[in-house]
């Protein structure tokens, strides 16, 4: 049995689908099973990563675990999983995590690094997935695109290598079901470096519209973002974008090497998500 946490999330739902397509037994964990749209024959169970001592039923019979870095109790969560019989963990981390440093660059990296440390110390088989920016992050502009041709946001010249959530999931499926991935730290990127302005233009091309950025100051963006996210996380995101204006990410071929096919382009992602912007 393979347990997928965050099974209704942008990556987790594709992990579930990928495992089912290959005939694996899947248990999908979510906080609200009654509202979850999980395909059969996956077994849907309730669970909260912030309450690891309540996960006994979810972990019963599980040998491989797809884990989100959530809940804030990394060591206890990994200990409960190991005691429950889990032998392999594939952790969705972030490309912001740095190795061999005493202190991570920001709050986002530190949360994920704490989970990496807990998993690495567990004695279990482990694989870390470290994606660059999710292509799906551009959904933050969807409401503005639906209502007009201008997006107000900071740092339009921030350069990233946006990766399709399906590609992250494809690598996760391989690491969950195959040997040979123990100890791997896969830096996952899309096939191209794009500015946020480039991404918005690509969305416009898919929609048949000309979209443009109206850059707002970082301070104004912080004021808006802290209304729905912790200040430390907001500061980390804005600092990452500021740094990305002058520094392009290194592209990798990890998706191709592990999943056996090239990573999808941002335009492919935009085509799939056209309804979100209309």
Element layout with pairings:
Blueprint: E1 2-4, H1 12-21, E2 26-30, E3 43-46, H2 56-59, E4 64-68, H3 74-83, E5 88-92, H4 107-120, E6 125-131, H5 142-147, E7 150-153, E8 159-160, H6 165-177, E9 184-188, E10 194-195, H7 196-207, E11 212-215, H8 218-225, H9 231-246, H10 254-259, H11 266-272
Parallel strand pairs: 1-2, 1-4, 2-3, 4-5, 5-6, 6-9, 7-11
Antiparallel strand pairs: 8-10
Helix pairs in contact: 1-6, 7-11, 8-9
- Strand line-up in the sheet with most strands: 3-2-1-4-5-6-9
Q: Note the overall shape.
A: globular
Q: Can you identify the CATH superfamily of the largest domain?
A: NAD(P)-binding Rossmann-like Domain
CATH fold-level assignment of the largest domain: Rossmann fold
| Oligomeric state as shown | single chain
Q: Taking all residues together, what is the mean pLDDT?
A: 95
Count of individual helical segments = 11
How much is the radius of gyration in Å? 19 Å
End-to-end C-alpha gap: 39 Å
- % residues in beta strands: 15-25%
The helix/strand order is EHEEHEHEHEHEEHEEHEHHHH
Structural class: alpha/beta
**How many domains is the backbone divided into?**
2
Task: Tell me what the CATH architecture of the largest domain is.
Answer: 3-Layer(aba) Sandwich
The beta-strand count equals 11
Low-confidence residue ranges: none
Q: How much helical structure, as a percent, in the residues?
A: 25-40%
CATH class descriptor name of the largest domain: Alpha Beta
- Biggest sheet overview: 7 strands, parallel
């Amino acid at each position: 049995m393979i347990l997928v946490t965050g099974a209704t999330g942008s990556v987790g739902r594709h992990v579930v689908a990928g495992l089912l397509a290959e005939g694996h037994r899947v248990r999908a964990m979510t906080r609200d099973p009654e509202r979850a749209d999980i395909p059969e024959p996956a077994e849907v169970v309730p669970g909260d990563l912030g309450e690891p001592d309540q996960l006994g039923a979810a972990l019963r019979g599980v040998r491989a675990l797809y884990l989100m870095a959530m809940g804030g109790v990394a060591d206890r969560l990994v200990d409960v999983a190991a005691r429950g019989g889990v032998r392999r963990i594939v952790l969705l981390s972030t490309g912001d995590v740095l190795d061999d440093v005493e202190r991570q660059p920001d709050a986002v990296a530190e949360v994920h690094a704490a989970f990496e440390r807990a998993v690495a110390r567990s004695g279990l088989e482990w694989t870390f997935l470290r994606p660059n920016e999710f292509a799906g992050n551009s959904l933050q502009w969807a409401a503005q695109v639906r209502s007009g041709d201008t997006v107000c946001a900071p740092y339009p010249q921030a350069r990233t290598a946006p990766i399709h959530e399906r590609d992250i999931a494809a690598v996760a499926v391989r690491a969950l079901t195959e040997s040979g991935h123990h100890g791997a730290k896969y830096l996952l990127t899309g096939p191209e470096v794009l500015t946020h302005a480039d991404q918005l233009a690509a969305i416009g091309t898919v929609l048949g519209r000309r979209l443009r950025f109206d850059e707002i100051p970082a301070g104004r963006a912080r004021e808006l973002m802290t209304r729905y996210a912790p200040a430390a996380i907001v500061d980390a995101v804005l600092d990452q974008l500021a740094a990305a204006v002058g520094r392009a990410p290194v592209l990798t071929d990890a998706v191709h090497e592990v999943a056996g096919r090239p990573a999808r382009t941002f335009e492919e992602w935009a085509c799939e998500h056209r309804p979100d912007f209309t």
